[in-house]
Design brief:
single chain; 655 residues; alpha/beta; Rossmann fold; 9-stranded mixed β-sheet; 19 strands
Length: 655
């Protein structure tokens, strides 16, 4: 079996004066293309003896080229030393145009260069692991690629530049083998239009990228670059535009690169070079750091948006209290019970839209084994409907330790099916993991697929949530934030914290999903926009509306179908509107979506570390405080009268 991130270093140390930068030729594994690819890394001379974390500039080659192009035409070592930067020269294939080809699975260079390689570099070199320490540039095909990847990965780079970029693919429909990657223009005009930079002004309009466009006056792409420049000006998008004498040649590009590096230098100097990945908010950052100092959690990621504005997207603290590994914004967290909404409820909504599921359907009609063997079960469990499972009104108990049952998964499932009710369905709201475990099995029965496969195919893949799923791969283990130290002294890392979910194979309706703040923001934006994002419809708007308002099966209950709504000492803060919906997770995660105020707040932590007993009350106190503070930064000062502060905040913040 080939290792997913196989690192084979051939280090070529070339002297430059008494000291010089080094050039590493490295082999990196692309999961999406299932093969090793070469990249060149140019490392400053100070790297070995220092403990500094370095910014990285990615240098993309042009059509017909390869990873050695830049070092074959220009000695990059003195520039690495001068600017104290790492340079990474990837393999973009001779004609990939840095796109993910819809017709060739072996040409997925947008994912490889824009995601996989960035993570590999950050894992193998001492780099600034956030966008404030990354920039990307390229020439010709690589100029297009740099702009394209920066726009497709807004959390990856703070600056981008293009030299002689082929920014309008439609003007090259018969050249440079583009059709071999996306199909002919005559057959697939939409692909050509939507992958051209000149048609991505809407994405640039909501981006805070620093941008430099550079093209020679006699360049074959000058007209397209002038068109891009004019569109950017008309849209009011800040950028630096350079035209000077020159053709489409290495003479032009090698002369231009030093100016681009100086531009990146100035951007890096003005950036927040810490472990944040996006906009930095001092007030929220101070609160997050105070929570960490108070041992509410070792580390976490906070992401908050209002409309298209990102208020904060930052990582804080460390993976554990040992403080050896800082949290990164793209780290993967065990979502715990957020699984119930992002995975299970989403699957139910999809099946509902497809006409395969009715909320009033009796559970025993789909899972006959649920009827059970007891007299009480025979009589009353037959009355439990899907709507009861989703709203925690089934009468099932909250939790049982099925993981202590010896034997196979089937043995434990049999025990779950035979769990008796504690009361008649529909009478009272009692939060129950058991009901949502059953809901996961119903989804599998109706979809005729494993739960993890169904939600991946129907929800996560269409939305581009590449870091979301069950059963994290070993290649992503370095990004997974650990949770608790178990009773045997073993750190729970890379597998689900919930014991019942783990005993069921890691895939369950109530727990087991892992994700990042960025992926959850994509999902939340889709929900906020009525089930659609960027032209991709996941749910019907009417379905979103139905599932995200209180179901009123039990009068006064906050429970929606799967989702929860604010109430009491609200986890989503005291300013959140009554129309909001969200959920929390036992490991220390929370997601709240507020349609009335167009606000999304995502707080991911590992508050169960080192032990779940550490959570109360500090985690619950600080969770409410952080969510509330987001609203305060947006000038909210009057709490929702239906919500109250937790005791810790009553004295200073309460009415």
């Amino acid at each position: 079996m080939r290792k997913r991130f196989k690192s084979l270093f051939w280090t070529i140390i070339i002297s430059f004066g008494l000291q010089a930068a080094t050039i590493d030729t490295v082999q990196t594994y692309s999961h999406v293309m299932d093969r090793n690819l070469t990249a060149i890394a140019v490392i400053p001379d100070s790297y070995v003896e220092s403990e500094v974390y370095y910014p990285v500039v990615y240098l993309l080659h042009g059509y017909g080229g390869g990873p050695f192009d830049w070092i074959n035409h220009l000695d990059l070592r003195p520039y690495a030393d001068q600017h104290q930067m790492l340079f990474i020269c990837p393999d973009g294939d001779k004609n990939s145009w840095y796109l993910d080809s819809p017709i060739n699975t072996e040409s997925q260079y947008a994912t490889y260069v824009g995601k996989e390689l960035v993570r590999w570099v950050d894992d193998h070199y001492r780099t600034i692991v956030d966008r404030s320490g990354r920039a990307i540039t390229g020439l010709s095909m690589g100029g297009h690629g740099a702009l394209y990847l920066a726009l497709q990965n807004p959390d990856a780079y703070c600056a981008v530049s293009s030299m002689s970029g082929g920014v309008d693919l439609t003007n090259s429909s018969k050249k440079w083998e583009i059709a071999a990657k996306i199909g002919s223009y005559e057959e697939f005009p939409d692909r050509w239009e939507e992958n051209s930079i000149v048609n991505m002004i809407d994405k640039l309009a909501i981006s805070d990228l620093k941008m430099l466009i550079d093209c020679g006056i006699d360049d074959i792409f000058i007209r397209n670059n002038r068109e891009l420049h004019q569109k950017l000006k008309k849209a009011g998008i800040e950028h630096l535009y350079i035209e000077k004498p020159g053709r489409h040649s290495w003479d032009y590009w090698t002369a231009a690169l030093p100016e681009h590096l100086s531009y990146f230098d100035s951007v890096f100097a003005g950036s927040e070079m810490d472990n944040t990945a996006g906009p930095h908010n001092q007030y929220l950052s101070d609160l997050m750091e105070t929570a960490i100092a108070d041992s509410a959690w070792p580390g976490g990621v906070l992401l908050a948006l209002q409309g298209d504005r990102i208020l904060v997207s930052s990582a804080f603290g460390f993976h554990t209290y040992a403080k050896r590994k800082p949290v990164r914004s793209d780290d993967i967290f065990d979502l715990a019970s957020i699984t119930k909404v992002v995975s299970t409820t989403s699957a139910v909504m999809k099946l509902y839209d497809q006409g395969l599921l009715d909320l009033n359907t009796k559970v025993v009609s789909i899972l006959p084994a649920f009827r059970g063997k007891s007299w009480w079960g025979d009589r009353h469990k037959a009355k439990v409907r899907i709507k009861h499972l989703l709203t925690h009104t089934s009468g099932l108990p909250p939790f049982k330790q099925y993981y202590k049952i010896e034997g196979s998964v089937e043995v434990r499932l049999d025990s779950i099916y035979n769990t008796g009710l504690e009361q008649k369905p529909g009478r009272e709201t009692v939060y129950s993991d058991i009901g949502i475990i059953l809901m996961g099995k119903i989804i599998e029965r109706l979809s005729e697929k494993p739960l993890n496969d169904y939600v991946s195919e129907e929800i996560f893949q269409p939305l581009g949530m590449a870091s979301t799923g069950y059963l994290p791969s070993k290649s992503n283990l370095y990004r997974v934030v650990p949770t608790e130290i178990d009773p045997e002294g073993k750190l729970v890392h890379g597998y689900v914290h919930d014991e019942n979910a783990h005993s069921l194979g890691g895939v369950a309706g109530h727990a087991g999903l892992f994700s990042t703040a960025g992926d959850l923001a994509i999902f939340a934006r889709m929900m906020l926009d009525g089930g659609e994002l960027d032209g991709i419809r996941i749910f019907q708007k009417e379905t979103v509306d139905l599932f995200t308002k209180p179901a009123d099966i039990v009068a006064g209950s906050s429970r929606c179908y799967g989702w929860d709504s604010p109430g009491g000492r609200a986890s989503g803060g005291v300013y959140i509107s009554d129309t909001a919906f969200g959920h929390t997770g036992y490991t220390g995660t929370s997601l709240w979506i507020d349609p009335e105020n167009d606000i999304i707040v995502i707080l991911l932590t590992n508050a169960v570390h080192p032990n779940r007993s550490w959570k109360s009350p500090k985690y619950y106190d600080w969770r409410q405080r952080i969510h509330s503070a987001v609203y305060e930064e947006l000038s909210f000062d009057t709490p929702n009268p239906n919500l109250i502060w937790r005791d810790r905040w009553q004295k200073n913040l309460g009415d």
